[in-house]
Structure formats: C-alpha cells, structure tokens
Amino acid sequence: MKYGVAIFPSKTLQDKANSYRKRYDPHYALIPPHITLKGPFEASDSEIKTISEKLEQIALDCKPFTLNVLKVSSFKPANNTIYFKLELTPEIERLHHALNSKDFFEDKSEYAFVPHITIGQKLSNDEHSDVFGQLAMVDVAHEEQVDRIHLLYQLENGSWTVYDTFTLGEE
Amino acid sequence: MKYGVAIFPSKTLQDKANSYRKRYDPHYALIPPHITLKGPFEASDSEIKTISEKLEQIALDCKPFTLNVLKVSSFKPANNTIYFKLELTPEIERLHHALNSKDFFEDKSEYAFVPHITIGQKLSNDEHSDVFGQLAMVDVAHEEQVDRIHLLYQLENGSWTVYDTFTLGEE
C-alpha cells in the first residue's frame, strides 16, 4: 500500500489553491490542496501501526509553526509544475527531515526540499509559459498557523484517504 | 463552515465502492467512500476547538467495533441512492446517537439511521432500475474492524478535507 504524509492548509488557502488547480492540475480531484512532507512510500498493511507510532513521536517532538506563502513559483526546467512557494522555515525543514531520515523510510531524493502547494502540473510548455506568466504577478502573500499533519494512503483510483492525524507538540 | 463526521472503511472496501461510484455517484471526486455518522452541520471557525474536544470524548467513550456489509440496497422511493447496507449494530448506533444528540449539534432528522456506504446517487428512475437491478444480486458480504472516526470540513468546491482523526476507546 502507498502512504504519504501531508499538511492540509486552512480552508481559505485551500479554496485559493483550488481556484487554480481546478483549471491547471489534473490531480485536482484526487486530493485536497496540500503540502507534501513525505512523498509516496510503500509499506505493508501490517506496518501501519508502527508507522503511526513513529509519526506520533515525530509530531510530538515538533511545535506548531507559522506557514508563509511567498509567491507563485515554478519548478521549470525540472518540470512544468507551478506552485505557491512557502517560506523554508527551520520548523518545516526539521519536520521534513524527521520524516525522511534513515529512521523513517529514508528518502534518498537528490532534490532539496522546497515546501510548496501545487496549483498546476503536467502542463505543456506553452500552457506553462502562459499560466506562469499570468500567475507570477499575482500577490498570494498569506500567513497561517500549522498545528497538525496527516498520514494518508492511496486508493486504486489514485485518490488519497486520511488514515490518521497527528497534532504537533501534543500527546 | 460546514463540518461532518465520517468513517473511512479499509482500502479494500473503498476500492470496491469506488468501482461503482466512478460510474454512478457524482460525488465520486468530492470525498472518498465513507459512512456518514453526522451529516453536514454549520459551525464557526472558532467553534472547531470545542467540537474537536467533544468528539474526542465521544470517541473515547466508544470501543472499536465490527463493520458488516450485508448487501446492496436502495433508498427508493425516498430517493434514488444505491448503497452498501451495513449491519445496524449497537456500537454504531450508539456512536451515531452520541454524535446527533442535543449535546452535540442535535440532528432533528425524521429519518431513522441506516448505516451505509453510498455507491450511486442522483440517478434517473430508469438508471436506478437498471443499476439496482444488476447490483442487488451481487454478493458484497464483507467484515472489518473500525477503530477511528474523522472530522471533516467542506471546501467551496464541495469537496471535503479531514481536520482531525479520533481513535475509538483511546486517549
């Protein structure tokens, strides 16, 4: 089974992201707007208990933190994904690190962690220039508190279901 | 903001439900397959803390229980919804009662609680006869354990995001 760990931002920020995702993100219907903390990883059904306990400990060791949306950015030339760029604070970096270390299904990705909320992906080059050209100018500055993370698993149709929720800094 | 409380069954059962929902349920993309324990209710953003605490207490007072899928059934003539009918056990009835009592956003619905997983809705009468005629014969018998419930809120596009998860019978 495929699992992942994510933050769902506030309704306000999700609604804003969805206003773009609706048009530009083919994953629009598969998962609400989110910040991926740990990309898809394989684990058996029987491992889920251990994963949950581990996540509870990681969440407990972190504190609620401020999320800052900075601007609309793009991963081009790596790919044509357009996203809300978030401030890389020590808190979110620490959380990401704990979730991808060798103690927890190590992620050996060669990419640096760029915290973001995807608003468009799998665009053609022309679409990308067009959409990014318009959105790069939009003021999306926004600040909110994050106090929880979610463990999700993927269904056969590609959509994601929440299995558990962990509050940061709380038993 | 609109909130609701639901159970997400296992991946196996969700995949089975989705194989029908994909074709027959226009809410397919808005929420994963679920059992509604408390239908949409309005609460302000500031009430969410109190709601969460209340739900934690309700979950704590309940124990994990067995979910039994009995057969495919329909709400016709009330409406054209087709669903997996679940056994009305004392445990799920108690949970539903606690979540809809006058202590917790009382639901004065005149309908009796019929625990179910919707697999088709908003069908025309002809579609309903057709689809229900086929599905009523399908053996969907299935049993699994339920040990958690989720509090969700609705986004502007009609989709639902999980806010919190509560484990039954556990602090």
Automatic annotation (TrEMBL), chains A, B:
Q: Where along the sequence does the record place the motif called HXTX 1?
A: 34-37
What EC number(s) does this enzyme carry? 3.1.-.-
The active site lies at: H34 (proton donor), H116 (proton acceptor)
- Motif HXTX 2 mapped to chain: 116-119
Could you list this entry's UniProt keywords, alphabetically sorted: Hydrolase
The record's Pfam families line, in alphabetical order, gives:
2_5_RNA_ligase2
Membrane-spanning parts: none
**Similarity comment:** Belongs to the 2H phosphoesterase superfamily. YjcG family.
Q: What is this protein called?
A: Putative phosphoesterase D0466_01080
Query: Which source organism does the UniProt entry give?
Result: Peribacillus glennii
